[in-house]
Write a structure and sequence with these properties.
The structure holds 2 protein chains of 2 kinds.
Chain A lengths: L6 H17 L4 H4 L4 H17 L18 H13 L8 H14 L2 H12 L5 E4 L15 E5 L2 E12 L6 E7 L10 E7 L5 E6 L8 E12 L3 E2 L5 H11 L5 H21 L1 E2 L2 E2 L4 H31 L7 H22 L17 H8 L10 H12 L7
Parallel strand pairs in A: 1-4
Antiparallel strand pairs in A: 2-3, 3-7, 4-5, 5-8, 6-7, 9-10
Helix pairs in contact in A: 1-4, 4-8, 5-6, 5-7, 8-9, 8-10, 9-10, 10-11, 10-12
Chain B lengths: L6 H17 L2 H7 L8 H10 L17 H14 L5 H15 L2 H12 L5 E4 L15 E3 L2 E10 L6 E6 L2 E6 L5 E6 L8 E10 L1 E4 L5 H32 L1 E2 L2 E2 L4 H29 L5 H27 L10 H13 L4 H12 L1 H9 L1
Parallel strand pairs in B: 1-4
Antiparallel strand pairs in B: 2-3, 3-7, 4-5, 5-8, 6-7, 9-10
Helix pairs in contact in B: 1-4, 4-7, 4-8, 5-6, 5-7, 7-8, 7-9, 7-10, 8-9, 9-10, 9-11
Classes of the chains: A alpha+beta, B alpha+beta.
């Protein structure tokens, strides 16, 4: 047990810090509030800059333009990016989820064709997994793909597709064999989003914005060679994508939570409660201390998980507690923020009296999605019950 | 950065687990809880042979000289076994106070017999105000004599020495010194007995100042968090086993999500408590700047988690969980006692607030 950075980890951190100090765009604050459609070229340019510095995909193997970084090093990377308040990368799904899946399951030709353009943000990727009738029960998805000569003809609907509106390509999970058990008839296709018959519509969420899309496919022709991995083995390919969803990226989340926490403590000294600073109110102190402790435990759980994955080689189902922990913690923190701010907490960004440009009213609403996206809390608890504790499968 | 156990730490943990499974089975725990002190001399000498009684004490006092992470692992296993008797009071609490405050001569006199397994000791902190802040002590020593009453003193009747936190310093005396009266308090936990200790002109020897207590109390507090982790793990294991075998509606109850999710939450709370306890031990080992905060975080989280893990475990057991025969209530009782000892979650949240909320105001002003 040694929670200090190793010499190598320190070197990586210092190198990145120096690079960020020299290369962080100075005008990010002018852009961050703008809608993604407006800022997207800016984020593409930022990703290209990171790529030039060798920082776009630190987790990828060196031969594909990464740094073969260990999980701890990836955690350091995301933490430093968050610390520097660096802009997000344009192709975050391509870099974080889909690129690694193509590297693991793709043919040499596919790697050569797709990987460089993921890195350079020339081609943006999205993920076509969830459907209106396949959420938690993902393997029950119905998007139909039939072989017609040297093409698949694809029909159906995807939902909750991030970046659908801008994506050039999609990692699409389709049903290629409706006759077999549901996990067994799936295939992953790499689909050009410019293909005729692809219709992308915004999905307005409870915060009022549209982070996600609905994607409709009608008789879309996909070259038969564009499957990833093996035909009818799409479930395993999709699972390997989902495993990346729970990687070192959590280190970035931790730093965002930590920053929220620091800000709440700061606010507690200025916000009044019963005629005195809220920071002197015993109940507020208790609640802030509890949140502070849990944000720290989130970090410790992550570090223990990274160490375990490093020694065992594979991320296990134990990772589900990380997802439950951060998502439910954020909801608790957002509620404490509301209690601290009182009637000001509800004010939206548009109101000049909103605290911190409305991040707390937004965060409160947005946090409801945390326990649903990337596997609901209920599914995560099922995973722990069955795969970690060995209880019988409930469904 | 590495947050796993090294080989020797794993070995120590595995050996301790085997030792307690063989030497301190539930049958013995149940036998000891019916006794006055819950102390078993035979078990104690076996623990001494293992080096447990001197685990963190220096080798010059016949200790094993191991680190704080090792102590935490041993406490976790002791908690899993629900080890009855004065191990915590003697080795962790009194041992740490002697280690941090005692002179070389005092360590030789008091610590060496503890390490050898020849003596037991405890620390008397609380008074009727039940304030865990050592500076709240009211009893005081005048001309080498102590008068006053201490409450909630763990394992006092099994102790050979009693360390007393007084207004004007930390003192030690023999448990049979003149003017001492020890009487049992009837606490919920039957495996670690509590006592009142009354002093009437009792001669005492000074160990040191109150200001020097915090490292010892921090280590003891982290050790209690680890003990809670062990108890939670055992509660979880027993509960999962039950959920796999108990049948209702023709199926093992563990197939139902309402039951599975209780177990999943027990797992989450246990693992999170473990992360916090291990980290606290490590910060104490390397004297990290955030050690006080880390200790409070570990104790507050584990104190609350042990209670909810116990609640869930008993609930999953249904009627069986409410019987005397089932072991869960023994862990549940210990968890309540440990929850309050050296400060409950509310106490440690306030301590953390002083460290992280009030310091933010200070740094804002100085900026």
């Amino acid at each position: 047990m040694d929670l200090n950075l190793t010499a190598e980890e320190t070197r990586l951190r210092d190198e990145l810090r120096a690079w960020l100090a020299a290369n962080m765009p100075k005008d990010w604050s002018d852009w961050r509030e703008k809608p993604l459609e407006v800022s997207f070229p800016y984020l593409r340019a930022w990703q290209r800059k990171l790529q030039d510095g060798g920082w776009a995909a630190v987790s990828w193997p060196k031969e594909y333009g990464g740094r073969s970084a260990s999980l701890m090093e990836q955690a350091i990377f995301w933490e430093e990016m968050a610390r520097a308040d660096a802009p997000p990368m344009a192709n975050s799904l391509g870099l974080g989820l889909i690129g690694p899946t193509i590297i693991a399951h793709g043919t040499e030709a596919q790697k050569k064709r797709f990987i460089p353009k993921i890195l350079s943000a020339e081609e943006i990727w999205c993920q076509g997994f969830s459907e209106p009738n396949a959420g938690s029960d993902l393997a029950g998805l119905q998007m139909d793909a039939r072989l017609d000569g040297d093409h698949y003809i694809v029909n159906g609907q995807k939902v909750w597709t991030s970046y659908g509106w801008i994506a050039d390509w999609c990692e699409l999970v389709v049903r290629t064999d409706p006759a077999v058990a549901k996990h067994k008839g799936l295939t992953v296709l790499l689909v050009d989003m410019k293909s005729p018959g692809v219709d992308v519509r915004p999905l307005r969420q409870m915060t009022g914005e549209s982070e996600f899309n609905e994607v409709f496919l009608r008789d879309v022709r996909v070259p038969a060679a564009n499957f990833l991995g093996r035909v009818n083995d799409g479930w395993n390919v999709a699972i390997s994508t989902l495993m990346h969803e729970r990687g070192a990226y959590g280190a970035r989340l931790h730093l965002l939570f930590k920053r929220n926490m620091d800000r709440l403590i700061e606010l507690a000294h200025t916000v009044q409660r019963n005629g005195a600073a809220a920071a002197s109110d015993p109940l507020i102190r208790q609640k802030l201390a509890q949140c502070y402790a849990e944000v720290e435990i989130m970090r410790l759980n992550q570090m223990r998980a990274f160490s375990r994955i490093t020694s065992t080689g594979t991320p296990g189902p134990e990772g589900s507690i990380l997802k439950i922990f951060w998502s439910e913690l954020n909801q608790r923190v957002q509620q404490v923020a509301q209690e601290l701010l009182g009637p000001y907490g509800q004010l939206l960004a548009a109101d000049s009296r909103a605290v911190d440009h409305g991040i707390w009213s937004y965060g409160y609403l947005r946090s409801r999605g945390n326990t649903i996206e990337a596997g609901t809390s209920e599914i995560q608890r099922n995973i722990i019950g069955h795969f970690v504790l060995g209880l019988p499968r409930s469904y | 950065m590495e947050f796993g156990l090294n080989d020797s730490q794993q070995l120590l943990r595995d050996n301790a687990r085997k030792f307690f499974a063989a030497e301190c089975p539930m049958a013995l725990v149940r036998k000891l809880l019916e006794t006055d002190t819950a102390h078993d001399a035979a078990l104690w000498s076996k623990m001494a042979e293992q080096g447990f009684t001197g685990i963190v004490s220096p080798e010059e006092y016949d200790g094993a000289g191991l680190g704080k992470v090792e102590l935490i692992l041993l406490m976790e296993e002791a908690g899993r076994a629900l080890l009855p008797g004065p191990f915590f009071s003697t080795v962790v609490l009194a041992g740490s106070v002697l280690n941090s405050l005692g002179s070389a001569e005092q360590k030789k006199k008091y610590l060496t017999p503890i390490c050898r397994g020849e003596a037991r000791a405890t620390v008397a902190m609380l008074e009727s105000t039940a304030n865990w802040d050592p500076t709240a002590a009211q009893v005081s020593v005048a001309i080498g004599k102590l008068t006053g009453e201490k409450l909630f003193v763990p394992d006092a009747a099994a102790a050979d020495y009693i360390i007393v936190v007084a207004r004007n310093g930390v003192y030690i005396t023999g448990a049979k010194a003149p003017g001492i009266q020890i009487a049992p308090m009837s606490g919920m936990d039957l495996t670690r007995k509590l006592y009142t200790v009354r002093f009437d002109g009792t001669p005492v020897e000074k160990l040191g100042e109150l200001a020097g207590l915090s490292p010892a109390l921090d280590l003891a507090t982290a050790a209690l968090a680890a003990e809670l982790v062990g108890g939670m793990q055992r509660t979880l294991d027993i509960t999962v086993e039950y959920a796999k075998t108990r049948k209702q509606f023709g199926k093992p109850i563990g197939i139902f999500q309402a039951v599975q999710h209780q177990c999943a939450d027990m797992y989450l709370e246990t693992e999170s408590s473990r992360s916090a306890a291990y980290y606290a031990a490590w910060t104490l080992e390397v004297d990290a700047p955030d050690s006080a905060a880390a200790v409070s975080i570990a104790k507050m989280y584990a104190s609350d988690a042990a209670r909810t893990v116990g609640n869930r475990g008993i609930q999953v057991h249904g009627g069986m969980g409410f019987t005397w025969e089932n072991d869960l209530h023994l862990y549940y009782r210990r968890a309540k006692s440990t929850e309050t000892m050296l400060g409950d979650a509310t106490f440690h949240r306030e301590r953390l607030a002083r460290l992280v909320i009030d310091s933010a105001a200070r740094s804002a002003k100085s900026a």
